[in-house]
Amino acid sequence: MDFGPHLFLACLEGAITAAVISLTAVGLSLVFGIMRVVNVAHGEFFMLGAIVAWWTATSLAGHPAFGFSAALVTAPLVVGLIAIIINRLILVRLNYDPERTIVATIGLLYVIQQTALMTFGPDARPVEPPFNTRIAIPWIGFGDSGFELIWPWGLATTTYKLAVIAAAILIVATVWLVISRTRFGLIMRATQQDGEMATSFGIPVRRVYAIVFAFGAALAALGAVLIVPVQQAHYLMGGDPLLLSFIVVIIGGLGSLPGTIIAAVIIGMSDGIISVFFSPTLAKILATLLVALVLVFRPQGLLGRRRA
Amino acid sequence: MRRQDSSANPVTRRRLLKTLGAGTGAIVAGSTIPGLFRYAQAQSSEPIKIGFQVHRTGIGAAYGRWYDRTTQAAVKRINDAGGINGRPVEIIAEDDGTDPKRGAEVVEKFATQSNCDVAFGTLFSHVVIGSAPRAGELKIPYFVVSEGHHVASGMLNRYTLQPGITDVKSQVEAMGPFVAANLGKKVAMIFPDFAFGHDHRDYFTAAFEKSGGQVNAHIAIPPTETSFTKYFPKIPQDTEVLYHVMVGPAVLTFVKELGEFFGSSRPELFGFIDSLEAVDISSPGLEFLEGTYFWEGNPRYAQDNQTSHDMNYRQAVGVDANGASVSDAKDVSTYAHMFGCWETLNIIKAGMEAAGYQGPQDRAKLIEAVEAMTELPLSDDHPQGAKIFNGKTHQVFGHQYITRVTEGKLVLAHTTSIEDTFYPDEADYTSQPF
User: Fold this and answer.
1) What is B168-305+399-421's CATH topology?
2) Domain presence at residue A5
3) Can you name the CATH fold of B2-167+338-398?
4) Rounded to two decimals, what is the model's pTM?
5) Over the stretch B113-151, which tens digit does the pLDDT of each residue have?
6) Cβ-based contacts of B226 with chain A (< 8 Å)
7) Closest to B87 in 3D by CA, of B135, B32, B126, B133
8) I need a surface site. Which of A41, A183, B27, B147 has the fewest CB within 10 A?
């Protein structure tokens, strides 16, 4: 394949990674920013979202779009509910202590993963996309008669993959609007800035925590619902999104929404492009190296604010 | 504690042997277990324990599930026919997590904790390569059902044998001429980036170039990868045949994205069925496979020339004519590979009977008995087809099947002879001491 179309295809693949990672990373970043909880089990919420999506889609008959739309509702709801229960049973009892919650969520990671293995089983299960048409992409090439439109071999994507990118942009924009424009967003920001002060102003901080934790989990679940028609639900699928989300959140600045999104785009795109032109392992190596460099030279992340 | 347990057990067995040796036990057991008197020297009715190393979890889980079902069915058949040397067979199954390190631990557990007579099972080549040295150290026969060329290459040891399934090198040796003669001369290869895939890369390339073809690209993909489109642009545009073999939980995504990449202008496709094991060939998005060819170790769909042996085997394992579970048509089997478990267990039985196997002290005799095997005719014991075992390289050779997707089913297009799969010996394990 020529360089141009090849690069374009790499960008397209990178954009899909970026779309999904931005959703999971925003969830992780919100939970950390507001609750100061490093949720190591975040990737498992992603996996649970995919499994609930599979379960919803297969238990509903009819057109695949019907099952998929239902999954878009049930997966975030169910996973959010599970997160609320986890918050009540574990995080509240640990008093949101940053160190102990890390250990607790590591334990949760295994509990959720093994529960999925015991119930859902070890297989990868597909969810049918609501629509999926191949689109061949034209390219401008230089032929005998000057510039002309050509259709390079293999330069194609599907309507569904484009829809994933669009949906992710839409969801992230909504999240940003909620945080910056609504009353609940104001409460969240107040809690983030100073929990004690927020309490004294009558904000039910514990309830805000519960909602934020559920919200973060629901975002991960939503990301999984979007990707599951492309990738299939599998009990080990939470590992990669967790790693990439952490990379993104650290580079972007823990708790900074715009930073997270910029980092998601950088990491997603570079993962796509480096994987295509070099090797996927090199992409992971470079991303992890970037984390190390950010931690050394700019520990607060690209857009994070240094804490006093 | 653990050490005490393992040393306590042999004492019990010896005591039991003595009691039975008095004769009464043998007579009582003899009246209930047919065939015991033929092996009058078999004085124990303790079960023969076969440690079954199985991919219950990890990327090999779909194979593990069907390896397990096949194994259970084969053991039930052996026990219904009187067991081995009059003793029932007991399977001690242990999950290896499709992980080499865990695999070695599992083999160790079989040898030292559960006192298994032999170890058996497992498919993924990295697990076999990780486990075999431990089996050699512990001197426990290790019968693998893995396809990898690592057994016949001489890389492993005298305790590791592969008598129930052919190896990749022999498979691709037989595929090379077919691809060159029927599909095209310029091949791009896509394979998983670990030992099994490297066998494909090295041996198919050699076999294909010998047949006058040319491999113009090698594209390695990590077996844990979940998204594949980014690899496909590396397929050169003048490719006539795309050779694909993929494993892991994402195989369906792999094939689907392959279809999306090519659209209507695909090259010829020749795949190893591994790319679609445990996947329904009529899944949405796979329509483009119509007319493409697959290697199958054993044809998934019951063919027109189906033998009674395949019919009996299918029925025993619980697989329907489409290669899916009789209880769930969506639960597609790993039919091209799992026969290896059935046949290996029958080899273990035949080997133990030929060696007059009594207990772990006879392990070397068992290996010698299997090494002495040569022709294994098509039968209910070997439903995939006749085979020839090479005792020196510890590797079996057999027919290979090429099927073509026709109206959504895999229909047999070509069967290779056993001779097509031969290559010169690369090792002689019989020269190694026990």
Assistant:
1) Rossmann fold (3.40.50)
2) no
3) Rossmann fold (3.40.50)
4) 0.82
5) 999 999 998 999 999 999 999 999 999 999 999 988 999
6) 231, 237, 240
7) B32
8) A183
